[in-house]
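Input.
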Amino acid sequence: MQTLTFTQAHAVLWDEQNGLLWVTGGTLVRTYRVNGTLRAARLQKRGPDITIAGNGHDIQPDYARPGTLLVTDSHRVYSVDKATRAVTVVAKMPYVKSYVRHAGGQAMWTADPDINDSDWGGSTVHFSAGGNRTRPGAQIYKARIHTTRFH
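Output.
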């Protein structure tokens, strides 16, 4: 058994190219190397933490820009360069929960339209090219692109 301290850990993403587990939570993005197998598996912190402004919600690959990840907090979308760990604000949007970009460049995101209406999310998945999809009464927290093209 291994106990790690990571306040508000919230989302994880396995990076098979670099053999790293990316984790976001609170105002940090952190990476771990996985050592060992089965019950002997242990996480070892790798590299410096990355600081973001708000409470981290999600982390996904940017399929349009290999080598970068997209991280959301409550009010922003960030691009994180995996090699340099440089952070750039991509967009500012209220209560964004998840954000991903297709290899063709179209973005897809979920958000809570009114922080008072639910803790989970809204009823719409948004698309940068238009054609948003709404399911009345739904509380959609995170959306993903289904693809075999991870990197």
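The chain has a mean pLDDT of 92.
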